[in-house]
Amino acid sequence: MVDPQRGASDRVRARAEAAAWMALLHSPERNGKIERGLRSWIEADPANAAAWELATDVWDDTANLRRYMPSWNVSSTRRWNRRPLLAIALAVSCALICFTIVSLRETTVATGVGEQRTLVLDDGTRVQLNTDTRLKVDFDRHARRLVLDSGEAYFQVAHELRPFVVIAGDRKVVALGTEFTVRRDQSASDVVTVTLMEGRVAVEPVNGVSIRAATPFGDATVLEVGQRLHVRRHGRPALDAPPIDKVTGWIRGQVIFDHTPLRDAVVEISRYSRKPVVLQSSELGDLQIGGVFRIGDINSFAGAVAFSQNLEVIATDEGLVLANKK
Known about the structure:
CATH topology of the largest domain: Jelly Rolls
Shape: globular
Number of helices: 7
Number of domains: 3
Structural class: alpha+beta
CATH architecture of the largest domain: Sandwich
């Protein structure tokens, strides 16, 4: 069964990205890489092609600018009145805020706590950054390299001859035309988690060398679709196969729990807020909870947990405390 809400969100996403591509295509920065990236983006998803057709129609209606379009542009016979022009202008403004076209060979992008950001790289690869994430992009003629310093990112890799490599901690993920997430939780154990949604990836150790000279050693772990790999520094890799909709819930603005220990749930929900949820006593951490919560809404989360577990919520200047009722 098709989820109508997800379909609508995909259309909104595609139209915003189309507006951003249109703005970039008509900017002084336009070059061959941008045109190839746009082609890859259009071919990656029918929703992208439809959104680009709509954006092209509206752009053409403002002035006779078709001579600036690449020869492979989709044309349309539909005509529009002047009122949608304001809408596309607002869409472009929104896209420039919410979406970033990364056309530099080397750059660093980051999100703050509770912020999410979508990038379209100049090869057409789409990257979604989760809360409190820092990512370095380093493309050259031989390889597409990225370093995930911290946080979490979802990669939809464009098909290309150059290898696509993501380095996180002491691991690197090598992919060719695939979809996967990488998460790095910096702590004493420095946990790196890789989950594969489509295609194939190999996760290999990186012997502490620089991004440009990264070379693997030891055996690689090749993931199948639906598998997730956890790697702790100096620890043995652990492989499982969680529900993909749960792992990717953050992409849809959701945090999903299913028989999750409360100690883990409060850590996860607190990733999206500068004022975290904490437990008054460690014994509460063993409680199992479930539910779907909106990212950043710690009040609803704390209230639902308190109601279901017969707890109380204590508000402080630092955040919310879940405690046993007195």
